[in-house]
Automatic annotation (TrEMBL):
This is Outer membrane protein beta-barrel domain-containing protein. It comes from Siphonobacter aquaeclarae. Residues 21-211 form the Outer membrane protein beta-barrel domain. Residues 1-22 form the signal peptide. Keywords: Signal.
Length: 242
């Protein structure tokens, strides 16, 4: 795949000699993330997508009027919800994960002079900077009088043990947490050009190719982030040569 990308870049460069323009800007929006995994032995459990924030400083190098290389620095929240069902109904955990991301890709434009549509593809590398968890779980500090008597019929976990709310920062475990993430990305959007800048509206889909966990146990179930980004922003022209 890297040879194909390099060959495509060479074709683009050869097709547009003498044209270049640097742009840098600001962007913001929302990130809708789904944790792709299997519950397997963890029964009565489902994973639901959650929405977070996305901000960034995009950098664009236009090789031609119709082609550009894109990169930048971004901070993305990749959140998800783990929800228990059935007997464990009422237990859940919301997880907020922040990633510092460096994307790199190519973009192809089409349209009239000021209004243009575009699409692109590429890859990204990210670092998992911090995590916070919040929800409701079984209390491990139940007093003896809180315990049910023998012979009671239980229909939910709250009858068997006290349930309490929690909110705390997640402490990374070097043995199991993989804080580096890499994957591929596709994008599509529209932009409008002013004399000094461009404004844009864009949708991206990112799929992680790296497991969120290290190989620390037998029969391990992989966990991958799938993220949809909806962003808007502005790009300012820095320099140009034609």
């Amino acid at each position: 795949m890297s040879k194909l990308a390099l060959s495509l870049l060479c074709v683009v460069l050869a097709a547009a000699p003498g044209y270049s323009q640097w742009q840098i800007g600001l962007q913001g929006g929302v990130a809708r993330n789904q944790l792709s995994t299997e519950t397997a032995y963890f029964t009565y459990t489902r994973y639901l997508p959650q929405t977070g924030l996305h901000i960034g400083v995009p950098v664009r190098y236009a090789i031609a009027d119709w082609a550009a290389i894109r990169t930048g620095a971004e901070l993305t929240e990749k959140n998800y919800r783990q929800e228990r069902t059935g007997f464990f109904d009422g237990l859940y955990q919301n997880t907020r994960n922040r990633y510092l991301t460096l994307p790199l890709g190519v973009e192809f434009s089409f349209g009239v002079k000021r209004w243009k549509g575009y699409c692109g593809f590429g890859g990204y590398a990210a670092y998992w900077t911090d995590s916070r968890i919040q929800g409701r779980g079984v209390s491990v500090f139940a007093s003896p009088e809180d315990q049910p008597s023998d012979g009671d019929q239980y229909t939910s976990i709250s009858q068997l043990a006290p349930v309490s709310a929690f909110r705390e920062n997640y402490v990374f475990d070097r043995r199991k947490d993989r804080r580096f993430e890499a994957g591929w990305t596709t994008s599509a959007g529209v932009r409008y050009a002013f004399p000094a800048c461009q404004v844009f509206l864009e949708a991206q889909y990112r799929y992680s190719l790296t497991d969120q966990q290290k190989n620390y146990m037998l029969l391990q179930i992989p966990r991958y982030n799938q993220t949809i980004l909806l962003t808007t922003g502005v790009l300012f022209h820095l320099s140009a040569s034609h």
